[in-house]
Specification:
- The chain starts with 25 loop residues before the first helix and ends with a helix.
- The protein contains 7 helices and 9 strands; from the N terminus they run H-E-H-E-E-H-E-H-E-H-E-E-H-E-E-H.
- It has a single domain (54-266), classed as Domain of unknown function DUF4159 (Rossmann fold).
- Helices cover 27% and strands 13% of the residues.
- By secondary structure, it is an alpha/beta fold.
- The strands form 2 sheets. The chain has a 7-stranded mixed β-sheet with strand order 2-1-3-4-7-6-5, covered by helices on one side.
- The protein has helices spanning 26-31, 76-87, 126-137, 152-164, 181-185, 222-226, 247-266; strands at residues 60-62, 100-101, 113-118, 141-146, 171-172, 205-209, 212-218, 228-230, 240-241.
- The longest helix has 20 residues, at 247-266.
Length: 267
């Protein structure tokens, strides 16, 4: 079932998939998918085959037409999905496609969740806004992640949300509210991240479409928390963080982020 039909419970994505591997250059492979066309002259090698992506989950980055560094933190989503694979022992089916997709056209309707992060202020075009309205109305979810944790990106969120969902209230997603209980408790009983500095625990915010949280804004730069400079090992299962985030902080961030994913797929 695709987003363009109806997708509040969709567990699938369509795109070029790569298996997530803990060995070798797993981050490079995941961040740079490469599938070659088979011309019939030789058997397909494993890396040249298009993998069956039915019933697999992914999150696709969007690249709007305005100025943005939408593709920063290139190891973030590969590491996020790698952690999901490790924690579910491969039971939860995921794949990685780290390339960006345009907000115009039909491609965004193939994905239950699309993701945008940047350091810069942003303004979606009128055409992008209209397509986003259709995407959200059909069950898609837009994740916004402020790559600085403050400043120009954050200042752009509310005016753009108002264009997409006029009159929408950005609701704080607090742990103490019944409405967002699942957000914190679906996979891990995240304890509100009490040992992390305020910089990393500003409340998420949600704008509603048709009674569900269709736009979710993370003001905490969790993409940088996911990212790694050294891949995971048995001794260091989280890998070495790329921006000085400590392992205990990153562990809590992964727990809350996995809840975020499951919450978005089921609400």
């Amino acid at each position: 079932m695709k987003c363009r039909e109806i997708m509040p419970y969709a567990f699938l994505g369509v795109g070029l998939a790569l298996p997530i591997s803990a060995s070798g250059n797993w981050v490079t492979e995941a961040a740079n998918p490469s599938v070659k066309e088979f011309d019939g002259t030789a058997p397909k090698r494993r890396e040249d085959r298009e993998i069956d992506r039915r019933d697999q989950v992914t999150i696709r980055r969007i690249k709007p037409q305005c100025r943005s560094d939408w593709n920063n933190d290139p190891t973030a989503l590969p590491q996020f999905f790698y952690q999901i694979q490790q924690r579910t022992k491969g039971v939860f089916p995921v794949y990685v496609d780290n390339s960006g997709i345009e907000l115009l056209g039909d491609e965004i309707f193939d994905y239950p969740i699309i993701y945008f992060t940047s350091h810069y202020p942003f303004t979606f075009t009128d055409e992008e806004v209209e397509n986003l309205k259709k995407y959200l109305a059909r069950g898609g979810t837009l994740w916004l992640d402020d790559c600085t944790g403050s400043g120009p990106f954050m200042d752009s969120v509310y005016p753009n949300v108002q264009r997409i969902v006029p009159g929408a209230e950005m609701r704080l997603m607090g742990r103490g509210t019944k409405e967002f209980f699942d957000f914190f408790n679906m996979i891990y009983e995240v304890d509100g991240l009490p040992h992390i500095s305020d910089y990393h625990v500003k409340p998420f915010q949600a704008a509603y479409v048709n009674g569900r949280p269709a736009i979710i804004f993370c003001p905490n730069d969790y993409g940088c928390g996911w990212e790694v400079s050294v891949p995971p090992t048995a001794i260091n299962p989280l890998g070495e963080g790329a921006h000085g985030w400590s392992a205990p902080i990153r562990e809590k961030v992964f727990q809350l982020s996995i809840n975020w994913l499951f919450y978005s797929l089921t609400h």
